[in-house]
Design brief:
Length: 557
């Protein structure tokens, strides 16, 4: 009996100790207007202990003495952490719908998003920080609903085709109008340093024509550049380094071990079922195709034997490749390896900005060195910008925004999607038995020139006394995309300068007069050279030089 009494006493002591460690915290949750908020989650931080507020915003929760913080959260409100000081707390939640107060750049200036009735999409500078882009139009891809963005090509610095309102014309352009700092821009989008951009706004509906007229029939892309922040002076340095590779894998293609039997089978069938005349038996066709007769064999048609077996022992009469066949130069049959590379991208910028009560400034310098993933494709761009705004009197405000850049670019010649000089078309369609460089047909060793260097197999060296054959017509005889891409030149040097000036006369609180004047100047030198060794320019070679310039002057009130 005494033992039972002792145990009950111990249990009572433990229970009383546990109750002493817990306490009840009450409180009330209000919004920023003082209205009670119901169904608010109240959770002890770091635990699963929680409750919700009632219709009058009040709540009550039992917490341990070690609890220090309550986490208060609700839909459409910013979460708060409240320190537990005593047994009562008061919470005022802030609305998280501040995005309705976001200022959007529109045709006539700026407007709050909550009062905007048109169809608008916006990309802020924050969205650009994590993206390595060389052209500001690349930022639109996948960021604005309803806007179709297509990549023109993989040339560094190239922009995208943008379709905001579909295809509006068969013959006329479907590209949108670009507006930079409130004035239509006559230069190219690649001339703008993305790090200088504060926001990009897409006007998608008919309201885009309110100020810009018929030019805005395809939509408007409004680019607003950065300006200084009043009350502070800042220096910002940014550096990005990355690499670019081919995004889409190449098609699956036949390798040399598959190519020869397939070609053998095609040739055999053409002997059995000729387009004209009488065919021969299947057995005879197999022997002819394998090279066991005096007639033309599959080797004679293809011209090259990359294997270590005799020319008449590559493919058996059953159509199978000789099991002893091994490649003489296995590392020199991949044309894409020679034409593609890992491109290195370097992007550096520095800006100084600040402001006082009546003025602000923004100064930036930028350098971009972007090498593409194909040989001889690159872009170097140097940019500078000065943006100054002043308001000497309460009724007048003025600003001047001057920018300039110098770009140098090399472009790999393509000549069209089905041109021999196009590196993708050539490497994709040439037979996998034809090497990039010239080899001894017996040993497979590289052939060397007088200087001891290996040289390209142009496919037409059959008469050069090197023991080489000419590639057949289907093997692109006399053409060599690597040689042509390496020896040819296609480049441009471009100088661009832009200036924008505005003056605002504030007549009343709700009425002001604005005068905008902008000048966009561009000068470009395009050059090309086609070599004397191989390709369309051989044997005499040819070159062209072209100079062009444009000046755009725009005024608006």
């Amino acid at each position: 009996m005494r033992k039972i009494s002792t145990m009950l006493l111990c249990l009572l002591l433990v229970a009383s100790q546990l109750l002493a460690q817990n306490k009840t915290v009450t409180g009330k949750v209000l919004d920023e207007k003082g209205v009670p908020v119901a169904n608010v989650s109240v959770l002890v931080k770091g635990t699963t202990i929680g409750t919700t507020s009632k219709q009058d915003g009040s709540f009550s929760i039992s917490v341990s003495s070690s609890a220090k913080v309550l986490v208060i959260s609700s839909v459409n409100f910013t979460s708060q952490e409240v320190l537990i000081k005593g047994t009562s707390v008061s919470v005022m939640l802030q609305s998280s719908t501040a995005s309705l107060d976001e200022v959007v750049v529109v045709a006539y200036g700026t407007q709050k998003k909550e009062t905007l009735t048109g169809s608008v999409g916006t990309i802020s500078a924050e969205n650009l920080k994590t993206r390595a882009i060389s052209n500001i139009t690349n930022s639109i891809e996948g960021a604005i609903p309803g806007v179709v963005v297509g990549s023109a090509n993989g040339q560094p610095g190239s922009g995208n085709s943008i379709r905001i309102r579909g295809f509006g014309s068969i013959n006329a352009t479907s590209e949108p109008l670009f507006v930079v700092d409130g004035v239509p821009y006559t230069g190219g989008s690649s001339n703008i340093n993305p790090d200088d951009v504060e926001s990009t706004t897409i006007l998608k509906d008919a309201s885009a024509t309110a100020l810009y007229g018929s030019r805005a029939a395809n939509g408007v892309v409004i680019i607003t550049t950065k300006r200084g922040k009043k009350g502070r002076n800042n220096i910002s340095v940014r550096g990005q380094t990355g690499f670019s590779t081919r995004g889409l894998q190449e098609y699956e293609r036949l390798d040399p071990f598959q190519f020869y039997p397939v070609q053998w089978d095609m040739y055999k069938n053409s002997l059995i079922y000729p387009v004209s005349g009488t065919g021969i038996s299947a057995d005879s066709a197999s022997r002819v195709a394998s090279g066991l007769t005096n007639r033309t064999s599959i080797f004679s048609l293809l011209g090259y034997n990359p294997f270590n077996v005799a020319n008449n022992a590559i493919v058996s009469t059953s159509g199978g490749l000789n099991p002893n066949a091994q490649l003489l130069y296995p590392d020199d049959l991949d044309w894409t390896k020679e034409l593609m590379r890992t491109g290195i991208r370097q992007d550096y910028s520095i800006n100084f900005n600040g402001g006082a009560e009546k003025s602000d400034y923004f100064v930036s310098l930028g350098f971009l060195n972007d090498k593409g993933y194909t040989v001889r494709s690159d872009l170097k761009r140097y940019t500078a910008r000065i943006n100054v705004n002043v308001q000497p009197k309460s009724w007048i405000k003025a600003g001047l925004n001057i920018s300039g850049n110098f770009s140098q670019s090399n472009t790999a010649s393509d000549g069209g999607s089905t041109s021999f000089v196009n590196p993708f078309f050539f490497s994709r369609n040439i037979g996998p038995i034809y090497p990039v460089y010239a080899h001894n047909p017996t040993t497979g060793n590289f052939l060397l020139d007088a200087s001891g260097n290996k040289f390209w197999d142009l496919g037409n060296l059959g008469g050069a006394g090197l023991g080489l054959a000419n590639r057949p017509t289907g093997g692109f005889s006399g053409r060599h995309t690597l040689a042509e891409t390496t020896l040819n030149e296609q480049f441009f040097n471009r100088t661009v300068a832009s200036a924008r000036n505005y003056v605002d006369l504030i007549i009343t609180k709700n009425f002001k007069f604005t005068n905008n004047v902008s000048v966009d100047f561009q000068s470009q030198y395009d050059g090309s050279y086609e070599n004397t060794v191989v390709g369309d320019g051989a044997p005499a070679g040819r070159s062209s030089k072209e100079y062009g310039g444009s000046t755009g002057l725009t005024t608006s009130q």
